[in-house]
Batch of 3 targets.
Target 1
Amino acid sequence: MERLLQGKVCIITGAAQGIGKAIVERFAGDGAVVYAFDRQVGVMEQWVEACAERFGTRVIPVCCDITNSAEVKSALMSIHKQEGRIDVLVNNAGVVFNRKMGMIVRDETELMFRVNVIAVLELVQLAARFMARNKTGSIVNIASVTAVLGSPGQVAYSATKGAVISLTKSAAKELASQGIRVNAVAPGIVETERFTELYETTGNKIDQRIGKIALGRLGSPEDVANACAFLASERASYISGQILGVDGCASI
């Protein structure tokens, strides 16, 4: 079976659980050397080791706060020194606070912009410097269907993901001459731990949300991971500046 990312050095942020964990496992299965960034490294230790052993590759947990510029720069420099290259960056780490108009909290909004936008911009910029040395690289940002379609109760969050989409399109044009592709995946409703907790605590009906998805089911973390693997691979070598919806044809 073909391994789409054989030998590629890949960085994935927000890797401890949910979508990030699925991306790590998919990339390892495709033969990548994976650096899994998260502040919760302890959560990753057991499954990271098992993942590496299962797929015969290296999966290295990295404790990193992506909002700390110095920490991020040090981590990327260390990886480049160790591996001699950085081939793929997946900006998955994110924060979400769902608030309706009139209830939006400034501190929460500022945190979302720091994590979802500013940290992503800084990581793209840093990773691109290393990728440019080899005239090749792929960056995949995680946006959201809410940024494309809008969503009641997610005005501030949607704004951060809309910024990610704009960032992706502009970075793709700017970095193309250096052989670096930049794309984004825009997931719909994905059944992660966070989603389950939200619907258990709010009393909202999952069935109502599924009813707005044409394919009739919630997305899985693996659905998003598969899209990321494709965009990161050479199969997508002529694809850049695109926003790939992974939403089951949702209407929100």
Target 2
Amino acid sequence: MATFGNFAKRKVPDRTPGAESGVDDADAGSLEAAALPDDLIEVGVIVDAYGVKGWVKVQPHAQEGQGGDALVRARGWWLAPRIAAPGQPVGGAGASAAGAQGALRGYAVSQAKPHSGSVVAHLNGFADRDQALAAKGSAVHVRRADFAKLDRDEFYWVDLIGLAVVNGEGDRLGQVVGLIDNGAHSVMRVAPSEDARASDERLIPFVDAYVRSVDFDARQVVVDWGLDY
């Protein structure tokens, strides 16, 4: 079974179900007035300005070929600024970890391209370096529909999170709450409940030897793994 793209950290909460993206090639700026799409996924963070003409530099949560391609493919990005903790500047060191997210605001993407392990892009409405720097620290979201189509037996992490995990005997082991990339393959973090402690988790390698099938219709992963492992 092939590995899969470790693209997104988490889904964005509180979406409006059934909304369309509203992105148009002629859109000249913010998509803020359009209804938020219901399939937005966080895919990276703006870490700096790039040049002096309003371009931004994004550190993606996954690289090219592992899901990071969606940043380049997408015609619209939705930015959520980080709100710093008291006494901490927005976009400053540690602000991303300490601060909460602000409201999402959409922008049409005029250009985007890979650049030395990052992605650089120009968003309509960004005219100079100062505007690009003001967006530093913002989380970048794109539509799940903008992810590249995967080959058979390849999966994006974000699609696996939340699936029930059962073994061949029908025993429920929990649900996928996260994944880990150990370099050789991915490992599912399976917890009996959403509020489980880390010590309660099972770590199941996402490889043929242990994973029998992934069934999105049934919302479950079937594994060769015992309750007493």
Target 3
Amino acid sequence: MAGYPPLDHGAWSAWHPRELAERLEGMQQPWCVVGGWALDLWHGRQTRSHEDLEFTVLRHDVPAFRECLEGMRFHAVGDGNVDYLPAERQPPETIAQIWCEDVEARRWRVDMMIEPGTEDTWVCKRDPGISLPRADIVARTAEGVPYLKPAAILLFKAKYRRAKDEIDFDNALAKLTGPERGWLKDCLETLHLGHAWTARL
């Protein structure tokens, strides 16, 4: 973008979820923390370091969230590219990720993910056949921070099985309820047949 040198992709100083919630206070549109931070909100403590912070919104709500996040510059992320997204431009349908740059600090603060659901229904972005009432899959901390429940977070993490994903699964396994284990196992058999986690559920 003219006048602004590109920000290094690794220039992350992510907010804590509480700070994101404070900035989004009063927003009526659905949103929730996802990724590793969602698991730690569920645990009630931070179990490991987090290089970023991710939250999801519905596509038609993106302009409202951009307006609420004052002091941010927004960038569409896809295929390894991070491209400035002007205020008047909606992200293309192929884009499901927007990095939010703190203009003053020149640091990435939060990753806004676009999800395919509705106000009432959560839909898995990797398989629209997997869905749940939003009220059943989104929880809140005692402070009111919304987060996606652990079974859904682990379903996303199962695709990559990075070291941090294995740690997250190990930390969560004993705390999952019977219904959560059953749902996750069924979803893994749909999306990742033969996945090593299935036998442990």
